[in-house]
Amino acid sequence: MNTEKIIPRSEYPRPDRVRKDWLCLNGRWDFAFDEEGKGISEGWMNKASLDTQINVPFVYQCELSGINDDRHSDYIWYHRTFTIPDSFEGKSVFLHFGAVDYKAKVWINGRYIGEHEGGYSPFSFDITYNVADRGAVYDLTVCCEDKLSTERPRGKQSYRPEPFECWYTPSSGIWQSVWLEATGMKYIDEVRITPDVDNYCFKVEAKLSEVPKNGHLKIDVSFRGKFVTALDIAVNTARVDTVICFPHNNLTREGFIYWGPGAGNLYDVDLTLSENGLDIDSLSTYFGMRKIRCEGGRIYINNVLLYQRLILDQGYWPDGLLTAPSDEALKKDIELTLKFGYNGARKHQKFEDPRYLYWADRMGLLVWEELPSAYQFNDTMMSNCFRDMQDAIKRDYNHPCIITWVPMNESWGIYHVKTSRKEQDFTDALYFMIHALDNTRIVSTNDGWEQSETDIVTVHDYASFTKDLRCEYESSDGILSGAPNGHRTIVCDDYDLSGKPILMTEYGGIALAKDKHGSNWGYGGAESDEEKFFERFEDITIGFKNCDYFCGYCYTQLTDVFQEVNGLLDMDRNPKVDIERVRSINLRKK
């Protein structure tokens, strides 16, 4: 369907699990503030309309929503009508939300459907029997609750009514796409694909809604439109696990083509479920043959040494906040990242839009995905973090671009982790939980300092010039035993992280004087002009490159973000400094 010109963000929301029958529900919805929290008691779920309108999937605090109101309201309401397409006849119907911040309750025709908690993860409802009359017009109502709570993973959204320092305008309510989708009455519920580079094969795990009679699951694999292999499996249980080896008639020695930096080589996979010889459901996905591992203090991708040149990317837009104005905008950010000479992005404090991950898969950009921080340590905060981390792994497991999970950043919310056994147990539990759910990726448990159990050691240091670096940088032992940034030790008490790869994962943050006014800021003051910027950028970047024990670096940052004006681009994605000069420094050996 082509609705691009009339509906915002109308591209298919989950390109790693595509179905042909779907209906985008973005666009104009009724909207109302409920600052007194009286909507449920007054029965707003039964209203035929609300008092204003909003442009979904943009939050009311941003310009693209059509409201652009920076007030805080604990409760907000949405309403729209929809009809079921004829193509959905005889099928199961699902209502999908890409992300709603923070709690969502959903009604159809005033009947309660369900709820979800967690501001960065997707959720769905089987509404088949709520929309049985295909000719009817249905009322869809959503109540969102988004309090300024520090127990919730909120990332860079301010927990005050106003932005401050490096925390920005909150994003309340629906901020990713909403859509309907049809499946078979018995259907493929989940699919995970795990590449095995060393054994020239990949594992497919499929979960079915129920076991079909005389069921079969057919798996067709192709590469850039050319057939690779196929398998037809008799289905006797609701879980199907199979290993598929690559045929030996391919052009490469291994029988497959690697996915890696700058090489977005993707295998397409079509799954078809049948019952009694008739096809009843289908789903399309993809994967990349990619392996990431740590060994001997180094990081390897596809068994080849990997040096990471990362950029910190917070994924904010001036007119959409956390929501990109278009799919093209997400793609453009990756194109600009590559033009600057970076081979990866650390997506900071955000589970990014799946469309970004799709383009990163397609263009061969490495991605670190990071759990948005909560800022108050207690049992509720821990439970929220465990839940959201699990949700992210479930959503994004099949994306080859993701090579690192980052559950914590700079001890935010775990302020005593250096010495507190309870907080260390929490971070260790996150580390082991992530590996239990996904043992194909690296974990940076508390990125920046005060690290407990972790796969890699990461350092944050905003020293302006190489001459400002402390003596700890003379050796990896100095890094592990000291506080190279001058105020935080890199390792928690009673942990030995020797022999692990070390990376500089935040540095730079250089602002220009022309941008530094009012509350705007950058690290280490501001440079008067572009030449002064490059004196500093080149000196400190090459300085960290010359630390032979470093396995890579991450520069802060890709774009300005509101009052934080230390981007290589402004918020409108205009270059502030010469792209080719940045690229040449990044690609220089030492």
Characterization of the model:
Helix content is 15%, strand content 31%. The chain is of the alpha/beta class and 590 residues long. The chain folds into 3 domains: 22-183, Jelly Rolls; 188-287, Sandwich (Immunoglobulin-like); 298-587, Glycosidases (TIM Barrel, Alpha-Beta Barrel). The protein has an 8-stranded parallel β-sheet with strand order 28-26-25-24-23-34-31-30. A 6-stranded antiparallel β-sheet has the order 3-2-4-10-7-8, with no helix packed on it. Helix 3 packs parallel to helix 4 and helix 6 runs parallel beside helix 7. The termini are far apart. The relative contact order is 0.10.
Can you give me a brief rundown of this structure?
This protein is of the alpha/beta class and 590 residues long. The protein is built from 7 helices and 34 strands.
Annotated CATH topology of the largest domain: TIM Barrel
* Shape annotation: globular
How far from one another are the termini? 50 Å
Number of domains: 3
Mean pLDDT: 96
The CATH class name of the largest domain reads Alpha Beta
CATH superfamily of the largest domain: Glycosidases
For this entry, what is the oligomeric state of its chains? single chain
Percent of residues in beta strands: 25-35%
Q: How many beta-strand elements?
A: 34
Biggest sheet layout: 8 strands, parallel
Question: Which architecture name of the largest domain does CATH use?
Answer: Alpha-Beta Barrel
Helix content class: 10-25%
